[in-house]
C-alpha cells in the first residue's frame, strides 16, 4: 500500500480477519479494503463492527462472491488483480461518499 501512503492516506495491513478487527478497535480507520479469499462471514463481522466503507477485492473469476458481498454490506468491489492507482481512486470515491452522507456536512450546506 505504498501508493496509498504517497497520496496522504495512512494504511495498515491486517493478515487476517482477527487482525482487521483489532485495527478497527485501535485505529478507527475511515475505510477498509479486503483482499484475497475473504469469506462472507468476515464481511458481515466487519460491517457489524464499524459503519465505514468496505471495498472488497474479489478474484475476477468469482462474480458470485462479489454479488454476495454486496448482499452482506460491502460498499464496493473490484475484480483483482487491480492496479494501485485504481485502489486509490476507489478509496477516494468511497470517502467522498461518506462525507456526502454525513449529517454534520449536510446541515452546514
Describe the structure.
The protein has 109 residues and is α/β, with parallel strands linked by helices. It has one domain: 3-Layer(aba) Sandwich (Rossmann fold), CATH 3.40.50. 54% of the residues lie in helices and 13% in strands. The chain is built from six helices and three strands; from the N terminus they run H-H-E-H-E-H-E-H-H. The protein has helices at 2-6, 17-27, 40-49, 63-71, 84-101, 103-108; strands at residues 32-34, 54-59, 76-80. It has a three-stranded parallel sheet with strand order 1-2-3, sandwiched between helices. Helix 3 (40-49) links the parallel strand 1 and strand 2. Helix 2 (17-27) runs parallel beside helix 3. The longest helix is centred in the C-terminal third of the chain and has 18 residues, at 84-101. It is globular. The protein starts with a helix and ends with a helix. The relative contact order is 0.15. Residues 104-109 have low confidence and may be disordered.
Summarize the entry for a quick read.
Helix content is 54%, strand content 13%. The chain has helices at residues 2-6, 17-27, 40-49, 63-71, 84-101, 103-108; strands at 32-34, 54-59, 76-80. Strands 1-2-3 form a three-stranded parallel sheet, sandwiched between helices.
H and E order: HHEHEHEHH
> Tally the helices: what do you get?
6
Structural class: alpha/beta
Spans of at least 5 consecutive residues whose pLDDT stays below 50 are: 104-109
The radius of gyration computed from the alpha-carbon positions, rounded to a whole number of angstroms, is 14 Å
Query: How confident overall, as mean pLDDT?
Result: 80
Strand content: 5-15%
> Helix coverage percent of residues?
40-55%
